[in-house]
Amino acid sequence: MNPINEADANFAKAQLTQGCDTMERLLAGLLDSKGRVAEEVHAIRKLGKSLRGGFSLFGLRKSSAQEIQAIGRLLSGPRDAVSRLGTWQKIGWDEDAAAVSAICGLLDQQTHSAARRPPPETIAWCHERVVAARENLLAVPPENLAAHLTAGIQKLGKQVVKRCRKLNDPSEEDFHDTRKSLKAYLGALGFLPEEAAAPQPEMAGLAELLGDENDLATLSTWLEEHGFTSRFVPGLWKKMKASRQKLRKQAMADATALAR
Hints:
The chain is mostly helical. It is flat, with a radius of gyration of 20 Å. Helix 2 crosses helix 8 (172-189), helix 3 (64-74) runs antiparallel to helix 6 (120-138) and helix 7 runs antiparallel to helix 8. It has helices spanning 6-29, 37-57, 64-74, 76-91, 97-113, 120-138, 145-166, 172-189, 201-225, 234-258. It is built from 10 helices and no strands.
């Protein structure tokens, strides 16, 4: 990574401010009767993850980043429902027709139910979160901004390495935590000029692997909560376990390579 200068820092601040403006426009779009809610929410949450990384650059992880995180959590229902259905379709399990019909029917029903637009009051609350996040950013003193950002990106990078090393002997949470640290780091780099910072290509690939693993973990939790346990659909759980183990094995190998 090249040294961050004041011009780079000002560029990042301007990009992050524009990102907040975009978030406001996307939220306003949820009040429109046209379009598809799940896709619009996906765009909002995807932008939110990048913004959170950007705010961490400026030392605003516990203020602005949490404001944006609250929006993602509040609007998670529509996208999570679509994601669960997509993950289920990728598995391609068909050993038990009755169970497949029951699972498909419920997933499809929840996807359609989640397609309802949030009430205006909810959108207004989310808008307040964006305004607060941007105000915190604009209040950051301009003095030594480059040094501040250099420290911020180094901290995020060290967190990635730390999390990747933990995948040598991982707990259940380590896969999710590594994915979050990668998303934060990659999101932060996205607000800097290309010539100032270029992520390792392997990072995006590892984030995608961990995303697929997380999707299976989320679907597993949903299946448990809705009674589709290994007692009733053992073949499904066997297939899901094999898929997760394969993803984890590759993720662990990739993480080891990145942490060197």
